C-alpha cells in the first residue's frame, strides 16, 4: 500500500487526526509567513541603513538630494571643530593643497573622521594631532593621539574599515601604538597631480 493510500485510510478511520494534522500544518505556515514578514522588515532596515551611511541604493530607486554635504577635505575645519569640543585637536597642512579625485577625497575624510572617533573612544581627553601632506604623487594622512600606551596594535572594525578605504583607492594604511605612548594612524593615498579634480 502506497503512502497516499495509507493517508487516505488514516483519514477515513481517524478524521480527527487529519484535522489535527491540518491544523498543525496551517499553524506552521502562519509562523513561516510571520517570520518572512519580519525578515523582509529587517532587510528593509539594513538597506535603509546602508543607503544612509554609504549612499548605496537600489537601481530602481530615484536618487534623492543628499541631506548633508558630501564628505570632503574642504570640510575638514568643521570636522576637527566637532571633535575639538571634547578634546584638544589640532591640524597641520603640508604641501600645496589641490583638488583630489572624489574617491580619494572621500576616503581621506572618512579615514580622518574614523581616526578622531577612535581617539575619542580610546584616549578621551588626550591631545590629537592631524597632519595632511600633499605631494606630487598624492596625500599622506597622519592622526596621532597622546593617550596612554596601549601595547596592542588593535584590529577593530574601525581600523579594518580605514584599511579597506585606503586600499580601495590604491593606497597603503598602517596603525599602531607609538613607543612613547598614544596611537598613530597613517595612510598614503595616491592622487597624482595630473589626475586631480
From TrEMBL:
Keywords: Kinase, Transferase, Two-component regulatory system. SUPFAM superfamilies: ATPase domain of HSP90 chaperone/DNA topoisomerase II/histidine kinase (SSF55874). Its EC number is 2.7.13.3. Gene3D superfamilies: Histidine kinase-like ATPase, C-terminal domain. The keyword Kinase applies. Residues 103-193 form the Histidine kinase/HSP90-like ATPase domain. It holds the Pfam family HATPase_c. One of its GO terms (biological process) is phosphorelay signal transduction system. InterPro entries: HATPase_C_sf (IPR036890), HATPase_dom (IPR003594), Sensor_HK_TwoCompSys (IPR050482). It catalyses: ATP + protein L-histidine = ADP + protein N-phospho-L-histidine. One of its GO terms (molecular function) is protein histidine kinase activity. This is histidine kinase. It comes from Micromonospora globispora. The lineage of its organism: Bacteria, Bacillati, Actinomycetota, Actinomycetes, Micromonosporales.
Amino acid at each position: 500500500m502506497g503512502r497516499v493510500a495509507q493517508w487516505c485510510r488514516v483519514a477515513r478511520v481517524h478524521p480527527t487526526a487529519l484535522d489535527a494534522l491540518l491544523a498543525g500544518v496551517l499553524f506552521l505556515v502562519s509562523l513561516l509567513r510571520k517570520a518572512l514578514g519580519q525578515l523582509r522588515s529587517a532587510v528593509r532596515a539594513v538597506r535603509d541603513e546602508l543607503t544612509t551611511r554609504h549612499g548605496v541604493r537600489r537601481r530602481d530607486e530615484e536618487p534623492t538630494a543628499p541631506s548633508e554635504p558630501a564628505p570632503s577635505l574642504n570640510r575638514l575645519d568643521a570636522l576637527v571643530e566637532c571633535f575639538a569640543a571634547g578634546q584638544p585637536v589640532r591640524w597641520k597642512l603640508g604641501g600645496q593643497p589641490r583638488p583630489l579625485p572624489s574617491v580619494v577625497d572621500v576616503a581621506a575624510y572618512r579615514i580622518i573622521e574614523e581616526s578622531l572617533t577612535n581617539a575619542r573612544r580610546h584616549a578621551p581627553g588626550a591631545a590629537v594631532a592631524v597632519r595632511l601632506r600633499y605631494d606630487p604623487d598624492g596625500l599622506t594622512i597622519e592622526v596621532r593621539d597622546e593617550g596612554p600606551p596601549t601595547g596592542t596594535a588593535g584590529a577593530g572594525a574601525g581600523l579594518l574599515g580605514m584599511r579597506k578605504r585606503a586600499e580601495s583607492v590604491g593606497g597603503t594604511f598602517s596603525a599602531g601604538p607609538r613607543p612613547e605612548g598614544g596611537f598613530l594612524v597613517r595612510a598614503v593615498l595616491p592622487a597624482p597631480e595630473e589626475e586631480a579634480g
